[in-house]
Amino acid sequence: MPIAASAKPAPNSYMAREPNAHSDRAARTTLKRPERPDRPDQDEPARPKGQTRPIEERFLLRVDGQTKCSFSSKETAVIAGAKIKKAYSVVVVTVVDTEEHTTEIINV
User: Fold this and answer.
1) Is pLDDT of 101 > 80?
2) Cβ atoms of residues 94 and 62 within 8 Å
3) Angle CA(41)–CA(46)–CA(50) in degrees, nearest 5?
4) CA–CA separation, 57 vs 82, rounded Å?
5) pTM to 2 decimals?
């Protein structure tokens, strides 16, 4: 016995829908992108951004083996290391000379 097909199709989720007022309004509205500010002159050197490596100077200040900053003179690196060591006496603070490959431990 054959199955009779109904005259009205069953509602399917993949069928096209009639546009309503909300979707029609959203289609007419367009979002504008904000304008970009003028680009800086090309003569200026680019600053490091994001995950690019910063330019390191000769003397590195390390706290518990992690490099925190670099200095051009040993005296300024030792002064900064002494301040950290006074504030946090438990950590190991060292100054590394990258040209002579020497390490100095800061004890205060």
Assistant:
1) yes
2) yes
3) 135
4) 19
5) 0.52
